[in-house]
Description:
6-stranded mixed beta barrel, 2 domains, alpha+beta, single chain, Barwin-like endoglucanases
Amino acid sequence: FPGDGWAKYKSKYEEFRQKLQAYYQQTGSLKEATLKVIDEMKGWYAGYNFQYPIHTEPAESPDPELAIKYPTLAWLNPHNIKVLKDQPSIVAGKPVGLALIPSELKGESGELVVITTNRLTEKFHSGAMTRNVPLLSQLVPEPFAYIPEKLASKLGIRPGEYVEIVTARGSVRLRAYVTRGEAYLKVNNKDLPVINVIWSFSFQGRTTGPQGNFINPDVGDVVTTIQESKAWIGFVRRVG
């Protein structure tokens, strides 16, 4: 932090969060509240210089209270603000929307989940090379999502059945890999399931299909600009 460090920055940080909360209560939309704060304070996290770590939520948070208490750093990146305001011209007409909190996932049904992604041993990195290797393609013939056993039981999902994962960017249909590796977040005394979508598939190769990067937010890390692929929100539902 500049000057006297955290002691000097703290009051500005608290003012920033108070304004965000006030505008959210006024508008009922975290997206609108965020844009109002950016406009009024001439930026986002003004004065923060990364010298001290602080907890922040991802661009899409599963809980409004957490999203306001620990605002995301995402809007320090000018590209991300374009996505927040509208669609960048490079992807005009494509589904690149954002749902900063669950209430902004309008018109959808299913179980609210936090979504993350992972690679596979059998599919190196994005799978661009290994999708064309016959033996590896037999080991993992199509894409899937890891679904915690407790969530699968609640939704009536059996191993191998299809599930639909819905986000503000659209949806993908994947096989369910029901696992006892339970992944839940405790959010305001509620257990929120985490599902894991692999991203080693695409349009070409011996094995093809959708992957996690088809539905993750078009929001870049404020330092590296790498897209958000480790935490966002959506709904999951059984489709048979």
